[in-house]
């Protein structure tokens, strides 16, 4: 990211049509990724999550898990929210309601 002045907007933005094939990712996206070392994909479609072979699915899940890191500010906020939920739910027998505002069908496992 140093070469992009730590600014994501300076990173090459790869626009991908929805429902692009795995072959498109391999033939078009991968070479650009290898050239640039980092790319943005937008709008990001979860195309690979639907019909990829199990080995690709495992790699995709592992890459997502390893790549997603929260900043210390977000971690701190999350810890505060969890502590608050635990404290306040003690008055309701440990019950609370949680709402995910960006629910997507692909989140269902």
From TrEMBL:
InterPro entries: FucosylTrfase_pln, GDP-Fuc_O-FucTrfase. Pfam families: O-FucT (PF10250). Transmembrane segments: none annotated. It comes from the Eukaryota. The keyword Magnesium does not apply. Keywords: Carbohydrate metabolism, Fucose metabolism, Glycosyltransferase, Transferase. One of its GO terms (biological process) is fucose metabolic process. The keyword Signal does not apply. GO terms for molecular function: glycosyltransferase activity. Belongs to the glycosyltransferase GT106 family. This is O-fucosyltransferase family protein.
């Amino acid at each position: 990211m140093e070469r992009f002045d730590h600014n994501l907007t300076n990173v090459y933005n790869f626009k991908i049509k929805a429902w692009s094939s795995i072959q498109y990712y391999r033939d078009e996206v991968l070479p650009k990724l290898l050239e640039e070392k980092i790319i943005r994909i937008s709008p990001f479609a979860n195309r690979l999550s639907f019909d990829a072979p199990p080995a690709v699915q495992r790699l995709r899940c592992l890459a997502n898990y390893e790549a997603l890191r929260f900043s210390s500010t977000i971690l701190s906020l999350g810890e505060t929210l969890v502590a608050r939920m635990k404290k306040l739910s003690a008055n309701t027998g440990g019950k609370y309601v949680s709402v995910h505002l960006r629910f997507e069908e692909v989140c269902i496992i």
